[in-house]
Structures are given as structure tokens and as C-alpha cells.
Specification:
The protein is α+β, with helices and mostly antiparallel strands. The protein is 26% helix and 28% strand. Strands 3, 5, 30, 31 and 32 form a 5-stranded antiparallel sheet that branches. Strands 6-7-8-9 form a 4-stranded antiparallel sheet, with no helix packed on it. Strands 10-11-12-13 form a 4-stranded antiparallel sheet, with no helix packed on it. It starts with 12 loop residues before the first helix and ends with a strand. The relative contact order is 0.08.
Length: 581
């Protein structure tokens, strides 16, 4: 065309291509490693790239010289020369000659070259050539039309504002930036992906973590040894040291309790406690437990018509700070506000109450005696709540914290709601309908999706990253679904016992790697999400375990609630527990 031409001197393309066979670096056959699986020349190239990216450029250059292996392939060197010397037509010919490029990637690469050429034409005042490149070379490319439009707009704006001209230094820098973007599009072995060695090491570490069924720690992974975690990384023993008061001590050591309490009132002593491991403040079956989002509190609810707020101390001990007594019926459900300043409690077959966590006082009562609440949840702003009713005519209601009704979902298509949750990102409202249906409603778009199960669903839980949900079925299975709807079948977890009662499960541990559930056989079950068979079965309760909750800030702390009137706090296995009273 005559539009794209050489602007500066330099070695010819033939000279650079004839420096050696373009594929010579890839034809070397020496292998490394005991397998052997690693091509030596590839390994060295990656090391050189790593040294260069870390700033050790002299070391990188030294390794290139000593090994005879170049970080950049002959093709990459040639393209670099062509772009920096503005040999645009040769650059285009080379890009068109690369066989491993997809049509889309090739078009994007050609667009970068032509865009740079067009801008330099404008800089020289050659508006006609710039316009010809735009019309005849850029427009036919199979690239996003918006990119072409933006280039045309930029071209006109630069011309109108008189900003098209650039000095040689600015042009050189612009070419370098275009080259960097261009190199990102070229496939191996012409160019390597950025930070390739770091990516390979990260992949190896991630694979080791993923294959470690007990991995449950925020601690850094060392490259000096293969990663492995033992079962001491997950909760397997009851570790709660019960609050020492006169009633508790008399239960365990009889009349000597009064002497001990009298002594404790005068000084602090360290006691080794091995038999006081359960919370016994509830007077009847404990139906629900849930840790706060910051992990500093635990809330529990019971058939004794009360809810309790417990404080998690720094040493992991829990102490009672508030007993919430206002419901007339058993309290079946609690829900923490995302900012952990408020707590909702659901009375079984009655109203919903809002409590202040700091003072333990009731701030508001939602609904009336005719509104039978089955479950409740918060939106991420801690200003809106949503609750479902087991009465089909009531449906689902959204309120603010003062009880003002914001929105309702009612009608013929709204059967009774058995359980519901709001994903932590606030995008989806998930509810259990008619015992066997999971309804996922996008709150913003109002688009809904329904998942049908073959057996009755008793409970629902959502992962902290908003990507997954689990449901307990009375068929003695737990099913995990993805919220986005990409899965055709759920992942299934078995081993626990559930036929008659409402059993609740939860995600937990590091990155929600684990699933825990109660069971009708008085045990707690823990699964690694990648395995359907239980990883651990925890014994200690005497009756059905109704609910479990994993501390979101302490990945090794788990709470369980049981019909035996107790709450157990589970932690890693240790021979001896001590606490300062």
C-alpha cells in the first residue's frame, strides 16, 4: 500500500531470522528431574524470565550467556526490532505468519500494530495516511467495534486539540508500551506468559493444599518442604471450659465448690480442667447455634423459650453475657446482623424479635401473632431483614430495622417457606419452598431459578463467598449446589443419620473447605468438600445434634447444639487444657 514503511535503519529481518533456526531452542532434548519431565531449555528460559522480573537483570544476562539459552525467542526478538524501528509491514507479515494464533488474537495483535502506526502518522501531520489506515486496515479487522470507534474518536480529538504531535522520546516510549501489550498476545514458545515460574510454583503449592484433606490454616506455606496437615488442624475434641460458678462447681465437686468460689473471688489461679467441657445454661433442648461474623460471639436458642449470647474470649473460652427472654414459645432460629451489633430471634410459631447485642435489650418486635415466622436473614447493609413464613398467605417479607415493610413476595406461586438465606454479597435470596424446592431469586434482576430435590429439605446454608449452598435432606444426604447454576448435579455427602428431625449443617474452616452437620445419632460429622465420605465423626453428645456452627474467624473452633440440653465447643485434639479464671 505504501502506507506502512520502514522509518529507521537497523538489521534486516532476514539477518535476525538467520541467526539460527527459529525452533532451535525448542528442539533441544535434554531433560531434567527424576521422572524426567522437564525440558532443560524451557526450565532455563523460565528461570531467566523470573530473574529479570525480580530485578536481577545482571544475573539474568549472565545465565543467558553461560547457558547459551536466550530468554526471548528469535521470533520475539525480531518482532521487538520491527516494532521499535517502526517496520510496520514486516510486523504485520510476521503476525500473519504465526500459525498458533487464533483469529481473534491475531486481529487484536494487528490492531495494536496498526493503532501505533496510525498515531505516528498523526504525529507527523500525515492525516491522509492515518485516515487510510483506519478505513482500509483497521475497520476490516475482526475486533470489538467499540475499540475501532474509540480509536476514531481519539484520532479526531487529538487533531482538533492539536495534541497529535509527539517528540521522538514520547514515540519511543509509546512503541515500548505497544510492544509489551503485543507480547502478551503471542503464544508459547514465542513468548512466555508473565511470571511463569511464580505461576508454576503457586500451582504446585495450591495442588498440595487441595490434596491435603485436613488443610485448615491461614499460616504461610513454606517452599522448603512438601505441605501436609494432620488432623490436629480441625476440631475433633470438646474443648470448652465451663464458666466456674457456684452452681457448676457444686455439680462437679459437691460441697467443696463454696470453698473454691470463695478463694477465686480473692485471686486468679490457673486450673487444669478435664471434665468441665460443655455449656449447660439452657434448660431444655438446644435447637440452634450460630457464631457472629467477627467470631467474637456465639448465639444459641432453645426449647426453653430463651436465646443466649456468649462471648468468645481470647483464650477460646465462652462466657454467658446475655440471656434473652421475651418469647412465649421455643426459640427456633437466630441470625446475626452483618455488623454483629444486632441479633434476630425467631419464636417457634410466633413473632420475630430484634435485640441489641451490647445491652441485651429487645429493640423491636416484627409482625404480629398472625405472622408465623419460619426463618429470617439479613442483607449485607445491616439495615434490611427478610423473613419467611410457614403460612402460604404471608410469603416472604422485607423490613427495615424499625419494622417498616419494604417489600413482600406473596401470591399463588408462593407456598410456605421452610428456610431462607441471603447470600453475603446481597445479590440472591435463596429459600426452601414446598419441602422439595430451592428457589434462587436474583434481587436486582428479579430473575429466579428453581432446583428440585427428590426428598424433603430440612435446612439451608450458604458459603461465605456466596458461591455455594448446602441443603440437608431427610434421605440422609447433604447436597451442595452452586448458586450461579452451572452444575447439573449436586455434590453429595453421606454418613450421618437424619429421618425425622430438622438437622442443620454449615460450611466452615479455611476458605470454607469443610462441611459440618449434626445427626440424629448424637454425633457431629465433618466432611472435606471434595469427599462424600466423612473425614471425622465427633462423639460426645447424648442425644440428637440439631445444629452446628463453625467460627468464621477461628477455623479450628466448632459449636454444636443438642437435644441433651448442651452446647459443645470443639477444637483440635490436645492432651491438656488450661484456662485462667
Amino acid at each position: 500500500m505504501g502506507i506502512l514503511k520502514y522509518e529507521t535503519g537497523g538489521s534486516s529481518p532476514e539477518h535476525h531470522m538467520n541467526q539460527g533456526n527459529p525452533k532451535s531452542m525448542e528442539n533441544l532434548t535434554e531433560m531434567l528431574g527424576p521422572k524426567p519431565l522437564i525440558k532443560k531449555h524451557e526450565f532455563v528460559r523460565i528461570i531467566i524470565q523470573c530473574l529479570d522480573s525480580l530485578g536481577y537483570k545482571k544475573s539474568a544476562s549472565c545465565l543467558e550467556s553461560e547457558s547459551g539459552i536466550s530468554y526471548k525467542s528469535p521470533e520475539a526478538k525480531l518482532l521487538e526490532m520491527q516494532v521499535l524501528n517502526a517496520n510496520w509491514e514486516d510486523s504485520i507479515d510476521m503476525l500473519n505468519g504465526i500459525e498458533d494464533l487464533t483469529d481473534e488474537t491475531r486481529a487484536s495483535a494487528l490492531f495494536l500494530v496498526l493503532q501505533q502506526c496510525l498515531l505516528e502518522c498523526l504525529s507527523r501531520g500525515d492525516d491522509s495516511s492515518a485516515l487510510a489506515i483506519l478505513r482500509k486496515r483497521v475497520s476490516p479487522l475482526n475486533v470489538d467495534r467499540e475499540k475501532v470507534h474509540n480509536l476514531a474518536v481519539s484520532m479526531l480529538s487529538l487533531k482538533e486539540m492539536g495534541l497529535g504531535k509527539m517528540d521522538d522520546c514520547s514515540i519511543r516510549e509509546l512503541r515500548k508500551k505497544s510492544l509489551v501489550e503485543l507480547e502478551k498476545l503471542l503464544p508459547p514458545p514465542i513468548m512466555m506468559p508473565e511470571r511463569r515460574l511464580e505461576h508454576l510454583v503457586e500451582t504446585a503449592v495450591t495442588t498440595q493444599m487441595d490434596s491435603c484433606v485436613y488443610h485448615n490454616s491461614f499460616r504461610e506455606i513454606s517452599l522448603y518442604e512438601d505441605h501436609y496437615c494432620g488432623r490436629d488442624q480441625i476440631p475433633t475434641e470438646t474443648v470448652q471450659l465451663q464458666l466456674l460458678n457456684a452452681e457448676t462447681l457444686s455439680y462437679y465437686i459437691g460441697i467443696f465448690a463454696l470453698v473454691v468460689v470463695s478463694y477465686l473471688n480473692k485471686s486468679r489461679i490457673e486450673l487444669s480442667v478435664t471434665n468441665m467441657k460443655i455449656l449447660t445454661e439452657h434448660k431444655n433442648e438446644v435447637w440452634f447455634v450460630q457464631f457472629s461474623h467477627n467470631g467474637e460471639y456465639l448465639a444459641s436458642s432453645s426449647r426453653d423459650c430463651a436465646a443466649i449470647i456468649w462471648k468468645v474470649l481470647e483464650n477460646g473460652v465462652l462466657i454467658l453475657i446475655h440471656r434473652l427472654q421475651s418469647h412465649q414459645n421455643p426459640v427456633s432460629f437466630v441470625a446475626w446482623s452483618p455488623d454483629d451489633t444486632m441479633l434476630l430471634t425467631c419464636g417457634n410459631g410466633e413473632v420475630l424479635k430484634l435485640w441489641d447485642v451490647e445491652t441485651g435489650t429487645c429493640k423491636h418486635t416484627f409482625g404480629d401473632d398472625g405472622f408465623i415466622v419460619s426463618s429470617c436473614a439479613w442483607f449485607p447493609d445491616s439495615k434490611r431483614i427478610v423473613c419467611g413464613s410457614s403460612d402460604p398467605e404471608k410469603g416472604i417479607c422485607m423490613w427495615d430495622c424499625d419494622g417498616k415493610e419494604i417489600k413482600t413476595w406473596r401470591g399463588m406461586r408462593m407456598p410456605k417457606v421452610l428456610d431462607l438465606a441471603v447470600t453475603p454479597d446481597g445479590e440472591n435470596l435463596i429459600s426452601i419452598f414446598s419441602e422439595k424446592e430451592i428457589r434462587i431469586l436474583n434481587v436486582g434482576t428479579n430473575v429466579e431459578r428453581v432446583i428440585s430435590e427428590d426428598y424433603s429439605i430440612t435446612s439451608l446454608s450458604v458459603s461465605r463467598d456466596s458461591k455455594f449452598l448446602i441443603v440437608n435432606l431427610n434421605s440422609e444426604e447433604i447436597h451442595m449446589w452452586d448458586v450461579a447454576g452451572k452444575w447439573k448435579k449436586p455434590l453429595k455427602y453421606t454418613g450421618h443419620k437424619q429421618n425425622k428431625y430438622v438437622i442443620r449443617s454449615c460450611f466452615g474452616g479455611f476458605n470454607c473447605t469443610f462441611i459440618a452437620s449434626g445427626s440424629e445419632n448424637s454425633q457431629v460429622y465433618i466432611w472435606n468438600r471434595r469427599n462424600s465420605v466423612p473425614l471425622e465423626v465427633l462423639s460426645g453428645h447424648l442425644m440428637t445434634v440439631n445444629c452446628v456452627s463453625w467460627n468464621p474467624r477461628r477455623p479450628q473452633m466448632l459449636a454444636s447444639a443438642s437435644d441433651d440440653h448442651t452446647i459443645r465447643i470443639w477444637g483440635p485434639s490436645q492432651a491438656k487444657k488450661t484456662t485462667t479464671i
